Amino acid sequence: MAKRGGSMAGAMARLWAPWRMAYIKEAEKGEACFLCGLPKQKKDRENLILKRGKSCFVILNKYPYNNGHLLVAPYRHVADIEKLTNAESLELMRLTGRAKVALDRAMKPHGYNVGVNLGRAAGAGLPGHVHLHVVPRWNGDTNFMPLLGDTKVLPLTLAESWEMLARRLR
Ligand SMILES: [Zn+2]
User: What's the domain count of the chain?
Assistant: First the structure.
């Protein structure tokens, strides 16, 4: 395992690669954009939607790097952050802040990685619908989460994570 303090690109590659293949596999199966599709359904628990705002929403990542890894996205299918309206930009960041508070209380992480992958070259698994990743980090977490192929052992299920976070975002 590489030590802390490596290059940003190296860190991002390690951090944001694991779920990329899963997204690409879904995309290759011809499945529609899930960030557009899931909010249209009324099954937030099943779909892992944690919070609905006016223009943006919060959803747990189905392919998490870590416990509590969530995504904040606009409902609108826009590819780039500069295409967001002022209202969407504001709510995106406000919801990110609220999600962080919920994660603080529910899971007590030691830190976070928050960021956006734009374009496939940057590791975006779902180019076309901009979304912001919030990844809680714990000291030494990479030591406890070895990757076995693309399978990973996580101490919390997605359903458990949803329960812990959704009520704190109500
Ligand atoms: Zn979309």
Answer: 1
User: Is 3 inside any structural domain?
Assistant: no
Q: Write a three-state SS string for 57-93.
A: EEEECCCCCCCCCEEEEECCCCCCHHHCCHHHHHHHH
77 is catalytic: no
Collapsed DSSP state (helix, strand, coil) of residue 147: strand
Find the domain containing 149 and state its range. Answer: 8-169
Candidates 155, 105, 100; CA nearest to 133 is: 100
pLDDT in tens, 34-65: 999 999 999 999 999 999 999 999 999 998 88
* Whether 70 contacts 48, CB under 8 Å: no
Distance CA 146, CA 93 (A): 31
Q: Which pTM does this prediction carry?
A: 0.77
Candidate list 69, 110, 129, 131, residue with the active-site label: 131
What is the CA(76)–ligand 1 centre distance, in A? 7
